[in-house]
Design a protein that fits this description.
This protein is α/β, with parallel strands linked by helices. Helix content is about 30%, strand content about 20%. The protein folds into 2 domains: about 100 residues, Urease, subunit C, domain 1 (Roll); about 300 residues, Metal-dependent hydrolases (TIM Barrel, Alpha-Beta Barrel), CATH 3.20.20. The longest helix is centred in the C-terminal third of the chain and has 17 residues. The mean pLDDT is about 90. The chain binds zinc ion (ZN).
Length: about 475
Amino acid sequence: MLQKLETGKDRVLLRNARVLDVRAGSLNTPANVLVKSGVIADMDAGKSSVDCDVIECDGLTLSPGLIDCHCHILSPFIAEQKGLPGLWMLRQIRRNFAAMLATGVVCVRDMLSPIKFMNYFRDSINEGKIPGPRILAAGPVLSCKGGYPQFIEPVPALIAAFIGQPKLHLDTPQEAASAIRDLKKCGVDIIKVGYTHLNADMEPDNPLPVISGEVFDAICKTAHSLGLKVGVHHFCAQDLSEILRHDVDSIEHLPFDRALSSDEIAFVKKHGVRVVPTLTMTESVMRFEEKSEFLNSAWASDIFEPNVLQYLKSVAASWLDFSDPNHLKSFGVSRGRREFHKYVMRNAIQLREAGVPISTGTDMGAVTSFPGETADEVRRLSCIGLSNPDAIRAATLKAAELLGVEDKIGAVEPGKNADVILIEGNPLDDIDAVKRIRYVGKGGCWYQTKHPEAPDFWHGFELVMKDAG
Ligand SMILES: [Zn+2]
């Protein structure tokens, strides 16, 4: 998917690049941009700066790389995996990293992974041993016994000592505070809370348990005292008002059980939270069978291990067949329930109209959301009415703010990391340009992409608009 460029020198000149100024929402005239030790040093360097490698940009647009604020980047994509994990799993994880980078994603916020397992991988990326995006990680999801995600259980202590926990059950404020202090020591960058009453059967009479209000407050208080933000997973409208009674920083996903009332929308706006609607996830869950064509593409063979691809094909083929045993229980009922997606789209549009800040997130790794869809999420945000500059900001400048890394990435400016993409066209006029990625720079390394365009996952992308209407 990527070809690493041999840039032996510490200085790289991007010759004749048009800088996308995401702050101003404008595209500059071509210039020569000098990068030194992976950091943007000069936005208007001479034509032939001495002692540097040169990338001929020929008028390509130099944009900050994309940021995906909701991923599961260590996902092996096989939900009902039986037996011991195999080497294919490690290979799939490396493919996930490469596919994200090859489609312009220079940074992800991972929203559920055993933190020690994650640290192993992100150390390898940071040391330049394997190509991949910068990863900010939540570690385990904080919940209670039987609470969301009900299909994940804490692992035995002996295993957790090596890889970390995927989920913590917290019963008291003291437990919550001490768990968060431990997580901070282990290197988590954000705290994720799983909070939804809605069960996979979508029956309100059969709700999931949630953490108590006291525990929730202790989580927010301790996290903030340690400089960690709190992101909350939820699925249903009623939960949203409960969640917003606590001092949370972001809402992950949108209610798909009903449209939010205008009072509820106003409440979200007043609270000042940022929303990561993960439209890619809901659309993928509701329409996964429509991704089957993509699974036969050259891109799919690059992204997925052969056994994973086989599995995904069988899932897609049987997606609407509820009697098929080859199904994903966690998403089982929501399959094919298109009205859920309509609610999500309506809620997203209403929140956008109210001026609630929105960021890109695909939920990549949640089986139906694939690596490489972040650029399409940007397009989806433009479908719900964000202007092109705002849709791009949602994946760059504003996403960096949500992640607390705006001093390093999210804009092409002197002193910022050259975690950037060189794309064909002007995304301010044509949002699809974010898919036409030629080069990716990240952590001082430069890559040329093999495919001229990020994948087409859908043969009917405009269906998004139909649902929105
Ligand atoms: Zn998720």
